[in-house]
Design brief:
By secondary structure, this protein is an alpha/beta fold. The chain contains 16 helices and 16 strands. The protein has two domains: 124 residues, Urease, subunit C, domain 1 (Roll), CATH 2.30.40.10; 293 residues, TIM Barrel. Bound molecules: guanine and zinc ion.
């Protein structure tokens, strides 16, 4: 059964490319479509009358429900589930008052395993099937995370925080131990099944130059891993980086000095950047993660999407839980729209949808595996309930074009809109784990 061919009848919506380049034509909407899936991968997608369904296929008829690729969250912290919606602080106080004390509990493998299990089920019920995830400084937290991700057959990337200064002593490592622990985790988990490793210095203020040198060595020794960190999120943080690294031209230059800015590097937030920094990010083929819920919740600032577009820097959406106050990339799309409104820029529905799907996959260099329904891609997808609430039902009742319905979903939707989440061609249910 698990490996048989499935023929899924539904309506399908996915991006074939970046709408910055091709506009709404790069979004393919197939009403009354059929997708053939075998061994967890897409074989073919087309209108129902154009697809020959093999006799031995299992037919799954989803009626005219809307199916889209699973969402890709390009920045989130699994051990911060229990600091979500913490009151009254901005970044540096928030870290000290809530986040560091919480993360110090994660030397406990069992706690980490329980939290990872909850976290992954929460992602899946919000329609997110792939994420780039921070652990804590404790390697056990990452072992626990990967074991739970593997049990669900998920495509996930995670890494142990590297942090050797400016943090409580029970949360710091050393340049050497961070190197050894990260390398051991890479050996045990990187490229095992659907899992990938990210070298994860927390941010410039909490890593010494010696530790950043170790991060560089990890990337040089393991060329297919990711680099995941924070950058230019908050004004006081940027001032602090200027004090700590007086010789650096700007924040990005700190990471450049240690050759951390490259393909598969993902810089969360990237709000307070000069035009010149955007240019250098583009040249290095690095990516940024835009985390609108977090940027508003902890009051960090307004992300300049137009600058990213102008310089063709890869952008994905992130929730940044626990700085962000929702696991839902639909909620993130809503806040992203408003952040652009405040800067006199209109985020189109197709662009927001792209950021949550194919754009995220491209930012993570996973677009050969996920992000849309091209043949050969992994069949991680979600089934949308377009009648999830009376208000959404009412608003969509008169909308016939996919673009209007998509905008309603992006602005009004949340986990209630995600009827089912499928992983590698199988419907996921939390009780199965
Ligand atoms: N900068 C350094 N650490 C963190 C973190 O945990 N969350 C966010 N949002 N920014 C950070
Ligand atoms: Zn973060």
């Amino acid at each position: 059964m698990a490996n048989s061919i499935k023929a899924i009848h539904a309506s399908f919506l996915h991006c074939l490319a970046n709408p910055d380049v091709g506009g709404q034509d790069v979004v393919q909407f197939i009403e009354h479509g059929t997708m053939l899936v075998a061994n967890g991968k897409v074989i073919k997608l087309g209108t129902a009358d154009s697809i020959d369904v093999p006799n031995n296929a299992t037919v799954v008829d989803l009626g005219n429900k809307l199916v889209m690729p699973g969402f890709v969250d390009t920045h989130i912290h699994f051990p911060q589930v229990d600091v979500i919606a913490s009151y009254g602080t901005q970044l540096l106080d928030w870290l000290e008052r809530y986040t560091f004390p919480e993360e110090s509990r994660y030397s406990d493998y069992e706690l980490a395993e329980k939290t990872a299990s909850f976290f992954l089920d929460e992602l899946l019920s919000n329609g997110t099937t792939t994420a780039l995830v921070f652990g804590t400084v404790h390697p056990e937290s990452v072992d626990a995370f990967f074991s739970q991700a593997a049990a669900r057959n998920l495509r996930m990337i995670c890494g142990k925080v590297m942090m050797d200064r400016n943090a409580p002593s029970n949360l710091t490592d050393t340049p050497e131990s961070s190197f050894d622990d990260s390398q051991r985790l890479i050996n045990d988990w990187h490229d095992k099944g659907r899992l990938g490793y990210a070298v994860t210095p927390r941010f410039a203020p909490t890593s010494s130059p010696e530790q950043l040198t170790m991060a560089q060595k990890l990337l040089d020794d393991n060329p297919t891993v990711h680099l995941h960190t924070h950058m230019a999120e908050n004004g006081n943080e940027c001032d602090w980086v200027r004090e700590l690294f007086p010789d650096a031209e700007d924040y990005l230059a700190v990471y450049e000095k240690y050759k951390l800015v490259r393909k598969r590097s993902v810089f969360a937030h990237s709000i307070h950047l000069s035009d010149n920094a955007w240019k250098r990010l583009a040249k290095a083929d690095a990516a940024v993660s835009h985390c609108p819920c977090s940027n508003l919740f902890i009051g960090s600032g307004l992300f300049d999407l137009r600058a990213a577009q102008k310089h063709s820097v890869k952008v994905g959406l992130g929730t940044d839980v626990g700085g962000g106050d929702s696991f839902s990339l639909l909620r993130a799309s809503n806040e992203a729209y408003k952040i652009q409104q405040l800067q006199n820029h209109t985020l189109t529905p197709e662009h927001a949808f792209y950021l949550a799907t194919l754009g995220g996959a491209q930012a993570l260099d996973l677009d050969n595996q996920i992000g849309n329904f091209e043949p050969g891609k992994e069949a991680d997808f979600i089934v949308i309930d377009e009648q999830a609430t009376p208000l959404i039902s009412r608003r969509t009742s008169s909308q016939t074009h996919w673009r209007d319905r998509l905008f309603t979903l992006l602005m009004l939707g949340d986990d209630r809109s995600i009827e089912q989440t499928w992983i590698m061609g199988e419907p996921y249910s939390p009780s199965s784990n």
